[in-house]
Amino acid sequence: MTRHFLVDTDLTQAEQAEVLDLADALKKDRYKHQPFAGESTGRKTVAVIFDKTSTRTRVSFAAGISDLGGVPLIIGAGESQLGHKESVADTTKVLERMVSTIVWRTYAQAGLEEMAANSSVPVINALSDDYHPCQLLADLMTIREHKGKLAGLTLAYLGDCANNMANSYLLAGVTAGMHVRVAGPLGYLPDPRIVDAAAARAEETGGSVTITTDAAEAVAGADVVATDTWVSMGQEAEKAARQELFRSYTVDADAMAQAAEDAVVLHCLPAYRGYEISADVLDGPQSVVWDEAENRLHAQKALMVWLMAHSGLTGIPEAR
Ligand code: CP
Ligand code: NVA
């Protein structure tokens, strides 16, 4: 059965830990696994398709695929027939005959689901309107590096709780057994279906979910404090209104004073200093955002290796 990674909960707690262990191993030994170079698939190319702009995702997948012995085929917005002249299903039926894996940054989650339904090779969500699961693998790897564990830690996310990052923090965080608290204004809290899915996963892992409008309640004693832009890609027309709405959810020195003394700060980047995060916090000693950005490379390499192996396309690699 082909394994895809469309949403954070596509990996169980144990599987997520396997990917993170492999990511740590690949960080120590960058060229340890070369699944795209081997004879097992006969296919070196990985398609990486962008319907939205990107710096980190684009570079980390391109570099990571090269490291794994493959060739990245980056297809920018409007550069293929996908989405205007050709359906997702027809495009996928062509790609899956030629490439090892398909990575796609797009708008609708339904498009990714349609792609996966038509693909015999792994499909990876490189950000949709609903989730950013690759980012969360890097975030969890970073937290583990700095805190030595995940289960039992409290992560507080402030700001737009109805966006892809908030959803992924909830789902990936509880999968790891963390206590995830998100705080944002009414009207910008997570969809109840996400909350239910996160609560169900938390039941299995010992994690928990807290949804609140009170930033202080979310951040009190937290081990990890995270935020994201208030204006996600595609929401640019709402920029002024959003900057007003989210004003009391800035991750600044006052917010950090309520978190644990040794709390670390995450931001997927790009960051807007003075809005969702103050410059002194983003550029300060508790910030681990540059480790987090680097870890996109290692985490996604591990993910690609793992998905190929668990789809029967290569052997199962050892993490250590
Ligand atoms: N964090 C992240 O996904 O960054 P890019 O939009 O630059 O890829
Ligand atoms: N929520 C942001 C994340 C960017 C990496 C967006 O979707 O634009």
Outline the fold blueprint.
Blueprint: H1 13-28, E1 45-50, H2 56-67, E2 71-75, H3 88-95, E3 101-105, H4 109-117, E4 123-125, H5 133-147, E5 154-158, H6 164-175, E6 179-183, H7 192-205, E7 208-212, H8 215-219, E8 224-227, H9 239-245, H10 253-258, E9 264-267, H11 279-282, H12 289-310
Helix pairs in contact: 1-5, 1-12, 2-12, 3-4, 5-6, 5-12, 6-7
Keywords:
single chain, 320 residues, Rossmann fold, 2 domains, globular, binds phosphoric acid mono(formamide)ester, binds norvaline, Asp/Orn_carbamoylTrfase_sf, ornithine carbamoyltransferase activity, EC 2.1.3.3
In short:
41% of the residues lie in helices and 13% in strands. It has 320 residues and is an alpha/beta fold.
